[in-house]
Write a structure and sequence with these properties.
three-stranded antiparallel sheet; 1 helix; globular; binds zinc ion
């Protein structure tokens, strides 16, 4: 895959641990030290209880398909090589639903609730690892 020409995801100080974990082919999620719920996307406070102490914890990465749609055209330069990118929301834990794309599956075989495992895409953007999913 040729690196995309578009804008890569913008990495902030708050989200940096997420991206650094992906570069190591690992997932890391914030969890609130007060209410113990997971927090996604990365933030500086807990959206559930307002707690200000969030701790990054490893996650093994697998999830289930929450919802999906096939795009009629590529939605980003990173997906230009895909004819009909399958846009998906994958649930990794309660409260954690990650926007992503599915790879290695035909549209006709996609099912809500199916088990998915992570794919670490180091190639679409130089210096950034994207998280995609496959059955
Ligand atoms: Zn909390």
């Amino acid at each position: 895959v040729t690196p995309a020409q578009g804008h890569p995801p913008r990495i902030s100080e708050t989200s940096r641990p997420w991206w650094e974990a992906l570069a190591r082919e690992q997932l890391s999620l914030q969890r609130c030290d007060s209410c113990q719920r997971f927090v996604f996307y990365p933030r500086i406070h807990c959206p559930h209880c307002g707690g200000l102490s969030l701790t990054w914890r490893p996650h093994e990465g697998s999830g289930v398909l929450y919802t999906w749609s096939a795009a009629a055209a590529p939605v980003s330069p990173a997906f230009a090589h895909l004819k009909r990118p399958i846009l998906a929301i994958v649930e990794l834990a309660p409260d954690v639903r990650v926007p992503t794309t599915l790879v290695g599956i035909d549209e006709k075989d996609v099912r809500i609730g199916m088990a998915l495992r992570p794919v670490f895409d180091h190639d679409s953007y130089e210096g950034v690892t994207l998280l995609r999913y496959r059955p």
